[in-house]
Amino acid sequence: MVEMLHSIRFPDTWQLELDTLNGDDSSDDELDPELEALLGIAGENVEYVPIPGRADQVANLIWDTVELANSLELNVDIERTDSFVLFRFYDALGVYLYEHKDFFGKMFLVCDDVSITSSRDAPSPMPGNHLILSFYINTHTAARS
After folding, report:
1. Residue 56 is inside which H or E element, if any?
2. DSSP string for residues in the chain
3. C-alpha separations of 141 from 47, 100, 134, 144 in Å
4. Considering only CA atoms, which of 106, 100, 79 is closest in space to residue 5?
5. Rg of the chain (C-alpha set)
6. CA pair distance 65, 70, nearest whole angstrom
7. Residue 91 CA to chain centroid, in angstroms?
8. Left, alpha or beta for 8 (phi > 0: left; psi -120 to 50: alpha)?
């Protein structure tokens, strides 16, 4: 399950085009029925156990990210799944310098995974060629019950 917690957009800087993520051709997204059944079995009886201390860390990161995004007019998505929270920044590489380097340095230290991709290589709701910086912080571990 993926839940969008925040999606911050500034249309003066970018034109939001969700069609790039939600294309009309859904045939690419369909799974083979056998594979879908196998994935369903693999997901059964999974319990997500909270990682101690992560809820407070995530709440602080969300608060700081929303404040920074609004003050700098950054386009950001924050999504939650059963096991992690994802912070996705669109074309924000220029703001890593100067006084905001501490915020992004904290993200690199606190988060469990980070990826930098190009919109040419990954779907993006923002038009044009740009970089996408994604931070993942694990909130729960999966355990079979």
Report:
1. helix 54-72
2. --EEEEEE--TTT----GGGTS-S-GGGGPPPHHHHHHHHHHHTTEEEEEPTTHHHHHHHHHHHHHHHHHHHT-EEEEEE-SSEEEEEEES-GGGGSGGGHHHHHHHHHHSSEEEEEETTTS--SS-SS-EEEEEEEE-EEEEE-
3. 8, 31, 20, 10
4. 79
5. 17
6. 8
7. 14
8. beta
* Angstrom distance (rounded) from CA 18 to CA 35: 28
- Reading the block at residue 14, the tokens are 């970018």
Instruction: Note the pLDDT tens digit of each residue in 18-60.
Output: 334 444 444 445 657 766 665 555 556 778 888 899 999 999 9
